Amino acid sequence: MGRKAPVLALAAVAVLGATAVPAAHAATPAAAPAAKAKKLAKTMVKDDKQFACFSKIVEHESHWDHTAQNASSGAYGLVQALPGNKMASEGADWRTNPETQLKWGLDYMKERYGSPCGAWDHWQKNRWY
């Protein structure tokens, strides 16, 4: 019976005059942008230990959502920059481009804490970095 549902859905689409989109071209799952951002970060942070630290921070701060915004503080993006427009120093597309956010976050962690693992150590002690 599970195989009939797609046929019925296509029949309904045909009757209504809409165009069906093949599964291969359908909208990407919600997790796809997060996976893409994580893969991009891995290319930017070559050292496995440093990547693990960076990944833990981003996971805790934004769950790899480049549009994440903290309602109370206004922190924004993958690395929860506060204020978010700080990331404009890396690019005007800071609101929408995960790469810009990742570059800014890595630079911030290196400048302030010496490395992503330095930032993670601080995060573990204070629950912020």
Automatic annotation (TrEMBL):
Q: Which InterPro entries match?
A: Lysozyme-like_dom_sf, Transglycosylase_SLT_dom_1
Q: Which residues form a coiled coil?
A: none
Is Signal given among the entry's keywords? yes
- Provide this UniProt record's keywords sorted from A to Z: Signal
- List, alphabetically, the Pfam families matched: SLT (PF01464)
Give all residue intervals belonging to the Transglycosylase SLT domain: 52-117
- The source's domain of life comes to Bacteria
Signal sequence: where?
A: 1-26
From the Swiss-Prot or TrEMBL record, give the protein name: Transglycosylase SLT domain-containing protein
